[in-house]
Amino acid sequence: NAGVTQTPKFRVLKTGQSMTLLCAQDMNHEYMYWYRQDPGMGLRLIHYSVGEGTTAKGEVPDGYNVSRLKKQNFLLGLESAAPSQTSVYFCASSLEGTLTEAFFGQGTRLTVV
Amino acid sequence: AQSVTQLGSHVSVSEGALVLLRCNYSSSVPPYLFWYVQYPNQGLQLLLKYTSAATLVKGINGFEAEFKKSETSFHLTKPSAHMRDAAEYFCAVSDENDTGGFKTIFGAGTRLFVKA
Question: Which has the minimum average pLDDT: B5-14, B46-55, B98-107?
Fold first, then answer.
């Protein structure tokens, strides 16, 4: 029972490098989310998707892109990493957006030097 | 847009004491409210959710929360703290997005310390 799986778990990037974070869920959920967690700021929504082929901007979308080509996968891309993007990134999914709970991955700790 | 305010970034209680974690929301319509818990180096897990069926909501691990519309609050309580309750707790609200669906907005979190 995998739930929500994020890869990689840790990564160190140099400023200007690019990378993609992968999120996979096996619960057939429609909604998927990418959050970043920073000390004292809680979780801030980067981008989300309400279904395969759709994406939408959250609170802090700048510097990130996403794709949802398959229902079970939600990719988060950083085209040119900056030190301000050092954070812990969480992917989550939910059956729908309102009353159903969100299931979270274990997180990806990204450091940009 | 809706927002969530958690009062107190850190709360410390003794084992066996009452736990009270405060959450206030801004909303002009009935909200959907949640409490999540995050243990060290893990993702978030749902503790409980308010669905308008009852104002007092019971969750896992002995936690409960009361929805008070007049105070726009959804405080989390537990009568007797246990060492294993030490974690970070997040209050969250569902907010309508631009396309008519919903997204979840989280508070800044409250870290609970439990002293032996």
Answer: B98-107
In angstroms, what separates the C-alpha of B10 from chain A's closest C-alpha? 10
Q: What is the DSSP string of chain A?
A: ---EEEE-SEEEE-TT--EEEEEEESS--SEEEEEEEETTTEEEEEEEESSTT--EE-S--TT-EEE-SSTTEEEEEESS--GGG-EEEEEEEESSSSSSPPEE---EEEEE-
Amino acid at position B77, single letter: T
**Is the minimum CB–CB distance between A98 and chain B shorter than 8 Å?**
yes
Residue of A88, A98, A100 best to disrupt the B interface, most CBs of B under 10 A: A98
- The size of chain A, in residues, is 113
